[in-house]
Amino acid sequence: RYERVELDGVTFHGVPHAHEESRFGEELARVEPDADSINVLMLHTSLGKRYLMEEYGERVFPDERMDMLSRFEYVALGHWHGFQKAHGADNAWYSGATERMNDGEAGKERGFCTVKLAKGESPLVTFHPLPARPWHRFEIECCRDKTVEEIQREISSRGEETAAEGAQISVYLREILPEQSAAVRTSWISERFPGALAVNV
């Protein structure tokens, strides 16, 4: 349910993530900024379809309610894992995640943000990067056109070039044939990345 918390002259308005669109609309309708304080709206939603992540139960903020966002000094957004200013609202930001959640985020910076707020003024948002666990993604293309030995050499060379200590590793063998797959075992691939936290094939 919608909740509000007042803390040192700032009113935080928390709108829950809801799978049912009608429920989300009902909770959103309860939000009313406090005229005497700095107002922060907190949402776990996609502000437009560009921030969808192809996950079950994602919620897109309704276009017809976009004008309400300007009534807040800051809109703190969750769901999208990268730090960035949201398109379509000058005061809305995704803080991002402190860890990489899947191999689609390999190589992308992770961290948190701090926000300076004043009544009626634009927020001053600063990103602070964190040393997140590395995630390496490798794609071996057109396996069907290669010998098993050639596939193994490519995988081995990636293992030799990669500092895998504590890292997550994703290896994609594109267009691999069943007989090739039987010869290039998952356990053999994992051995090419000693020290990795996990190797996903």
Descriptive account of the structure:
This protein is α/β, with parallel strands linked by helices and 201 residues long. It has four helices and eleven strands, in the order ββαβββββββαβααβ. A hairpin with a 7-residue loop joins strand 7 (110-116) and strand 8. It is elongated. It starts with a strand and ends with a strand.
Kindly report the average pLDDT value. 90
Q: Decide which structural class fits the backbone.
A: alpha/beta
Name the strands of the widest sheet in spatial order.
1-2-3-4-6-5
Rg for CA atoms = 23 Å
How do the helices and strands follow one another from N- to C-terminus?
EEHEEEEEEEHEHHE
Strand content: 25-35%
Task: Estimate the helix proportion, in percent.
Answer: 10-25%
Q: In one word, what is the shape?
A: elongated
Main sheet: strands, sense, barrel: 6 strands, mixed
Number of E strands: 11
Question: What is the terminal separation in angstroms?
Answer: 41 Å
Total of helices: 4
Low-pLDDT sequence parts: none
